[in-house]
Amino acid sequence: MLAFKYVAFHYLKYFFIILGALVMFLVGFDYMGNTDGLSKSANLLLIYLVYKSFFAIDMLLPIALVFAMISTKIFLIRSNALVSFFSLGYSRVDILRPFVVVSTSIIVIFISLHSWSSFARADEFSNNIKKNSQYLSPTRDLFFTYKGQYVYFSKMLPLQEKAEGIRVFSIKNNSLKEVVVASSAVYRDEYWLIKEADVITKPDELSFTSNGIKISKSNDLKILEGFRPKILDQVYEGKVNFTIKNAIDAIILLNGQNINTSSIKGALYKIFIYPFFVPFLIIIIFFFVPISVRFLNVSLFSFGAILSTLLVWGILFMLIELSNTKTIPSELGVIAPIFLLFILAALQWRKYRTAT
């Protein structure tokens, strides 16, 4: 317990220092590069910096956990604390355990933050502020199919749960049967509600003897059951920064519509699986470090460990981006490399679990 508390305290200390430094560097660098294009409003500027900070935390927290382990391990070696713990009967696994427990706990908290829209979509919101001076910009010219109908929104406002310029095309036997035209619709009680619409109905067969196209008025139409504005905005604009709830709802809703949900599954894999490369990489690196400074070139080890961490993180990030663009399957881009790291970490843990 003494070793656990001591190592965990220093690990957390280095983690917060490194994460803070990395976030300030990324946000500061971004601010200096985009100062001219940002709004002069102090409120918008502050909100922009907050969202950029959230995005920086989302991107850099996993790698900060690994860097903090490297820093803590070097501190333990240089202060001879590691040798002292071993002389008291602690094993390598005993010293490794606080790193794994603390990093895994932080990863669980990190995953739970993705249920919060402001954190999960921080990069999107900050880019909207930079481009449009508002954090949630309207989506324009949205055209999609749902339950056999083709739907067009000329403008959608997710924050107000409202759409403008509505067209709903109904198809029967590969032929246009009906068109609903409305100026606006609002999302209420799991439906998109159209208060007043023109319904254009085409007869099954157009001929000189048929009645021709019929135009009628209709009130209180309900369409797109369960298709929430945020799901529409993200799925059909190809966005991949889903909250946990939105991603799960989108998969449930779209599975029955024969719509490819691979990008949404990839977003869930990124939330739930990708961060766990951290404890696996910590285990792999930990056992390569000698117990004493006499057997270690600290500068060389630090350089090699940081370079290896950046290389692994970069490869994982590249594979995730390839998965987002559907270049490779999400299972290959996210699950496979994390599973490989898990196998390597398990072999290392098994090898040294009784060693000192």
UniProtKB/TrEMBL annotation:
<keyword id="KW-0472">Membrane</keyword>
<feature type="transmembrane region" description="Helical">
    <location>
        <begin position="99"/>
        <end position="120"/>
    </location>
</feature>
<dbReference type="InterPro" id="IPR005495">
    <property type="entry name" value="LptG/LptF_permease"/>
</dbReference>
<feature type="transmembrane region" description="Helical">
    <location>
        <begin position="332"/>
        <end position="349"/>
    </location>
</feature>
<feature type="transmembrane region" description="Helical">
    <location>
        <begin position="12"/>
        <end position="33"/>
    </location>
</feature>
<protein>
    <submittedName>
        <fullName>LptF/LptG family permease</fullName>
    </submittedName>
</protein>
<keyword id="KW-1133">Transmembrane helix</keyword>
<feature type="transmembrane region" description="Helical">
    <location>
        <begin position="45"/>
        <end position="68"/>
    </location>
</feature>
<feature type="transmembrane region" description="Helical">
    <location>
        <begin position="271"/>
        <end position="293"/>
    </location>
</feature>
<dbReference type="GO" id="GO:0043190">
    <property type="term" value="C:ATP-binding cassette (ABC) transporter complex"/>
</dbReference>
<dbReference type="Pfam" id="PF03739">
    <property type="entry name" value="LptF_LptG"/>
</dbReference>
<keyword id="KW-0812">Transmembrane</keyword>
<feature type="transmembrane region" description="Helical">
    <location>
        <begin position="299"/>
        <end position="320"/>
    </location>
</feature>
<keyword id="KW-1003">Cell membrane</keyword>
<dbReference type="GO" id="GO:0015920">
    <property type="term" value="P:lipopolysaccharide transport"/>
</dbReference>
